[in-house]
Amino acid sequence: MPAPAAAAPARVSPTSPPSSAASGLLRLLGFGLAGVAQALSIAWPGDGRPLWWLQLLSLAGLVWLLDGLRAQGAGWRRAGLHGWVFATAWLTGSFWWLFISMHTYGGLPAPLAVIAVLALAAALGLYYAVACAWFVVRGPTGRVAGAFVFAALWTLAELVRGSWFTGFPWGAGGYAHVDGPLAALAPWVGVYGIGAAAALAVALVARRLPLRGVMPTALAAVLLAVVFVLPNLVSPLPADARGAQGTAGTLQVALLQGNIPQDEKFIPGGGIETALRWYAEQLRDAKAQLVVTPETALPLLPRQLPAGYLDAIQERYGQPGSQQAAIVGLPLGDGPGTYRNAVLGFMPGSTAQPYAYSKHHLVPFGEFIPPGFRWFIRMMSIPLGDFERGGLAQAPFVWQGQRIAPNICYEDLFGDEIGANFRDEATAPTVLLNVSNIAWFGDSVAIDQHLAISRMRALEFARPMVRSTNTGATVVIDAAGRVTHQLPRLTRGVLEAPVEGRRGLTPFARWVAPFGLWPLWIAALAIVALGAVFFRPGRTRG
């Protein structure tokens, strides 16, 4: 009896769908790539430009992929995992340069530095995981209602990241729009409001569910017009604060950029002497009305400086009748627990007591050590420790008719805290000043990202932002968020430029000064709650 013929091998059509496992991996890859695009949109590698359209494409990819999970009936865990992959890829790509500070300058072994960056991104990504899971499982299926809920959830995740555990909102999506059409929203709703508007617009367009009927289509069109067009047609400032009427005069500034390498900055006989000598020369010879050094330009406490060093600066700028002033970055304090990251201001009549501003929002791990993490700090050979916090709304430096509000390093990341200075229009700053040293992060995209952050603050408050940094970006930004003067990065030099102070309060300044970011919190939570109560998903998911 002949043996039965062997079964022919199954033929796989080129158009056959991939296996479930392969499909799942491809989907995870898609979420990861969308997250990388989000990171690149804040500052494109190479030229450092923010790309607003790439941020919209990244969000569109996220919405499209989340709708795909919804169509498959994904549950909380699966939806959360995919949202977490998106956020972890995005945040790792946004602040990968933390590796440089920990490994290159801190001496932390490279594998541990990589793990530390990934762990931070993964922890912060949990906020977005919850937001994505809620949208997939509990979000409305209707296009307009769903778009509002997506925008609200996105905003809540951004707000949580920017406030919980002192907050680390670096790379928030709204910063990509500093050169885009949504930048006109900055003086109305700030960077988080821009992020919400971008999420709303993208969700209205990108969701796969079709619009049914004339009314939803018309509503979506009106919403898009309001988001993209109306802010560009309406001035955020009252008539008496626009144009020439809104000027507070012009100030000539000299911004010093020492370009002291970070691995030499605190070395006796090396970077310390170089910094003390170069900054002393520039402070002595400057001709501008206001001379500004970077953060910790003088890397020693006053009592550690050479005899007569600060006295010479006081004598140079403190003499009655002088037309010059200086703001100098240095640490202050008498011992552990009293150290402050600060600037001193010298102007005519200040010989007895110079102006002082102390940093309010301290950097976790850099300027204060979170409970339970001292072991991590001990693994790195860099001068880190517990600093004392300055007050929230400190007095401005008043000079030549300008009220200059300093902020130090990443303090300009917190627009609500800067907004506390605008509670009284009569004493509100006319110029914002940032002094920074981000040489810790090398010649990386961190310089470009920080510049975009400062430009957004200028837009939100309609104030010029002046930046003096160790390695870049040392710039003058006008009240419209445009860079008007800039030094090349990683060079030693002096940027001399005019700065036009401005007065008047933007709508953002008017509401963020008394209420902080609470209006955004309340609006976003209300939208999510209404979506959960009145617009239930089409079917229950596990």
UniProtKB/TrEMBL annotation:
Localization per Swiss-Prot or TrEMBL: Cell membrane
Primary location recorded for the protein, binned into one broad class: membrane
CDD domains: ALP_N-acyl_transferase (cd07571)
EC identifiers of the protein: 2.3.1.269
UniProt GO molecular function: N-acyltransferase activity
Record's keyword terms, sorted: Acyltransferase, Cell membrane, Lipoprotein, Membrane, Transferase, Transmembrane, Transmembrane helix
Transmembrane portions of the chain: 25-44, 50-69, 81-100, 112-137, 144-165, 185-206, 213-234, 511-535
Gene Ontology CC entries for this record: plasma membrane
Record bears the keyword GTP-binding: no
UniProt domain CN hydrolase: residue ranges: 256-501
Domain of life: Bacteria
Pathway: Protein modification; lipoprotein biosynthesis (N-acyl transfer)
A Pfam family assignment: CN_hydrolase
Biological processes per GO annotation: lipoprotein biosynthetic process
Keyword Lipoprotein in annotation: yes
Lipid bilayer topology: Multi-pass membrane protein
Similarity-based family: Belongs to the CN hydrolase family. Apolipoprotein N-acyltransferase subfamily.
Reported function: Catalyzes the phospholipid dependent N-acylation of the N-terminal cysteine of apolipoprotein, the last step in lipoprotein maturation.
Protein name as annotated: Apolipoprotein N-acyltransferase
Species this chain originates from: Variovorax boronicumulans
